[in-house]
Amino acid sequence: MNHNHSTPVFELEHVSFSYNHQIALRDINLTVHAGERIAVLGANGSGKSTLLKILDGLYFPNQGRACAFGEPLTEEQLQDDERAFAFRRRVGLVFQDPDVQLFSPTVWEEVTFAPLHLQLPRAEVVERAEWALELLGIGKLRDRAPHRLSGGEKKKVALASVLSLRPDVWLLDEPTASLDPRSQSRLLDFIGELGRAGKTIITATHDLDIVEEIADRVVMFCEEHAITGEGAPKELLSDYERLVECNLAHEHRHKHADTEHVHHHLHAAPHEHEHPG
Q: Is residue 216 in some structural domain?
């Protein structure tokens, strides 16, 4: 896809962010174009979630500048109701922990809350909410209390609450965490459908097994909260030394008689050794 002449969805220039004197992001430069599928890969605590929150306008850089859709992404901009509504209709974040996201008494109220808050017509909100619940197969949960649901069900409700907004840009934080294998497979299918529909999808994950399925481009974080590499999934996933440095794979040492062997293991993948008999 040729992005040369389009305004980027996001542009970060030399963005750094700290809270409580702890550095969370260090000198981040990143450009995201419409329709891109990007995996932000890094170990826990490397800064992936913080990056998504900056892209969602929940945090603002301490240094550097962030832009969204060609406009500065600042606290002042989002204090303007019209600008904030336009931004919130276009960008949706699904948090890693759905309990952070879910607060309404019923699933139905949860899924209709954001579009109603953004002043979409009620009839359209009802139609969108029903469509979102049906698409994710959770229509039967509509009158249930979100806090009483299983982890996988909560994750689907969180997805439905963003789906009802029909955003152009999806920010997904560890979307496969706490999902059973069947739900994980369905979620990956769903992410695939979003991609085919031309949505921009930025997924933060440390699950190396899903990267090639959900992304055309990988942005890799090191444990120093900085970007250490960018490129095609195949290229970065085959760079074992970098994966080990970023704590996304580990070297496994064991001895056979007097010889010590070192194997590289991806954290996400099961592995077996064959020992000579």
A: yes
CATH of the domain at 260: 3.40.50.300
Binning pLDDT at 50, 70 and 90, where does residue 14 land? Answer: very high
- The total number of structural domains in the chain stands at 1
Confidence of residue 270 (pLDDT cuts 50, 70, 90): very low
- One DSSP character per residue, the chain reads ---TTSPPSEEEEEEEEEETTEEEEEEEEEEE-TT-EEEEE--TTSSHHHHHHHHTTSS--SEEEEEETTEE--HHHHHSHHHHHHHHHHEEEE-SSHHHH--SSSHHHHHHHHHHHTT--HHHHHHHHHHHHHHTT-GGGTTS-GGGS-HHHHHHHHHHHHHTT--SEEEEESTTTT--HHHHHHHHHHHHHHHHTT-EEEEEE--GGGHHHH-SEEEEEPTTSSEEEEE-HHHHHT-HHHHHHTTSEEEEEEEETTEEEEEEEETTS--------
- For residues 66-83, average pLDDT: 95
